[in-house]
Amino acid sequence: MKNLDQRNQIIEYSLKLNSTNLSPLRSGNISLRGIENDIEGYLITPSGKKYETLKTEDIVFMGLNEEEKKNNSTNKPSSEWRFHRDIYASKKDAHAIVHTHSPHATAVSSHGKSIPPFHYMIALAGGNDIKCAEYATFGTEELSKNVIKALENRSACLMSNHGQVAFGKNLENAFELAQEIENICHQYTIALKLGQPKILSYEEMKKVLDKAKNYKKG
What we know:
This protein is of the alpha+beta class. It has a single domain (about 5-210), classed as CATH 3.40.225.10. It has 6 helices and 7 strands, in the order αβββαβαβαββαα. The longest helix is centred in the C-terminal third of the chain and has 23 residues, at about 170-195.
């Protein structure tokens, strides 16, 4: 089977979605950029399967130009395949994508607002705030367009009334960023219980963003 190592890695991190409580049961999805039969595309978790039951043959490959599944797998790709495809098409530095329905990110996303720089770790997503993509029905082209807009100059965003999505240079990197976003959302909900938190200035966040470029190189 082609891309066996990548398929196993997707299963490994899918199980982590459950064990870390980033996404329970079947919720959320994971993908990795890849090539099969000289076709550039991505491997993605299938639709509707519990992660604990996943086998390598369940992982679905899709080409970047495909509008629907065109392979021999008996499984359909995740219903969210469209924004995975569009992120890979528009973000050359995206090699892995993690989408979760993590509790605190989903709670914050239900307000449909961006997270302001109440903490400097906001910069890990690439900007001076974390954008929230406007709501659209899951799996639709409209949702994909909203996500791409919210990810402008960023590597993670919230999805209104839905959850969060993060991408990175590999699955470890993307998964860690999704964990960071969930933690930031948790901190933000606690901060709001005390009132409106102090917001860091644009000038301070510019300094932080410059420093953040080297944060993960050590």
